[in-house]
Write a structure and sequence with these properties.
This protein is mostly helical and 165 residues long. The chain has five helices and no strands. The protein binds fe (ii) ion (2 copies). One fe (ii) ion (FE2) binds next to helix 3.
């Protein structure tokens, strides 16, 4: 693998782990405000991002390259509402999607076709993640100001089952 591409994959590993850390901070914010269902959802999301980081980590190793982990920035910890938490989540996912697209473009430009199946998987994963978070945002907007609707939504999100992938 060309050093330029290895560096880009290593950056993506750090990005996924940073994303995991950010979701954990969101879980903590929600736990503190008594939204246990949403906090549970965020914890699972955090685990999923960790698994994404490990997928890239393993891929770099499988390609006989050296994994180099970068620093993880401090997460955002201040939010105005559950809606603000999920809006921040959508913005983060959109940034990750852009980064995956850049990786795809670089791998293609460098004719590193062995990277494409993994990147295809991530392209699909990002479509799914953006759709899921957008749906929660729509539901939160509809529930705005209605305690009961918010409680039902918290219960619903609390039913999410694990499966880091
Ligand atoms: Fe991810
Ligand atoms: Fe994600």
């Amino acid at each position: 693998m060309k050093p330029e591409l290895t560096a880009a994959f290593n950056e993506q590993i750090t990005r996924e782990f940073s994303s995991s850390y950010q979701y954990l901070a969101m879980a903590a914010w929600l736990e503190a405000r008594s939204f246990p269902g949403m906090a549970h959802w965020m914890r699972l999301q955090s685990e999923e991002e960790w698994a994404h980081g490990m997928k890239f980590y393993q891929f770099v190793l499988d390609r006989s390259q050296v994994v180099e982990l970068g620093p993880i920035p401090a997460p955002d910890v201040d939010f105005d509402s559950p809606l603000a938490v999920f809006a921040r989540s959508l913005a983060a996912e959109e940034a990750v999607t852009a980064a995956i697209n850049d990786l795809y473009a670089l791998a293609t430009e460098l004719r590193d076709y062995a990277s494409l199946p993994l990147l295809d998987w991530f392209v699909n994963e990002q479509v799914e993640e953006e759709a899921t978070v957008s749906q929660v945002i729509d539901d939160l907007e509809r529930a705005e100001g209605e305690g009961h609707a918010l409680l039902m939504l918290d219960r619903e999100l609390g039913a999410r089952v694990g499966g880091a992938g």
